[in-house]
Amino acid sequence: MFGVFCCHTDPGRLCAGWVATIDLDESLALRVNHARVDLDAVRAYRSPVPLHPSGQAAADHGRAGLAGPPSPATVAKGAQVARMIARRGRRGDVR
């Protein structure tokens, strides 16, 4: 789907944290994908766990522990995950 932020554990689904923190009325990504996204379900979603107040706060928290550029092993793992996601997309597993 164009422009939406998908889940890191299930790339065919929207990221729950993203859904919970974006301004749904201002999201171009959701408007562009209106035929593929259940907007009523997105609007009704409430996270069962506390979330950061914004995407920027979540990103800042995630980057806080990074010491520098990723290691070669991290880069290799990222490439492996990207290949897995590409294979899933070719099989039509996107929900």
Please summarize what this structure is.
With 95 residues, the protein is mostly helical. 48% of the residues lie in helices and 0% in strands.
What does this 3D model show about the protein?
The chain is mainly alpha-helical. It has one domain. It is 48% helix and 0% strand. The protein has five helices and no strands. It is globular and about 40 Å long. The mean pLDDT is 81.
Descriptors for this entry?
95 residues; single chain; mainly alpha
Fold topology:
Elements: H1 16-21, H2 28-32, H3 39-44, H4 55-63, H5 72-91
Order of helices and strands: HHHHH
CA radius of gyration: 15 Å
Percentage of residues in helical conformation: 40-55%
> How large is the count of helical segments?
5
Gross morphology = globular
How many domain regions?
1
How many DSSP-defined strands? 0
Q: Quote the average pLDDT.
A: 81
Provide the β-strand percentage band. Answer: under 5%
Q: Indicate the structural class.
A: mainly alpha
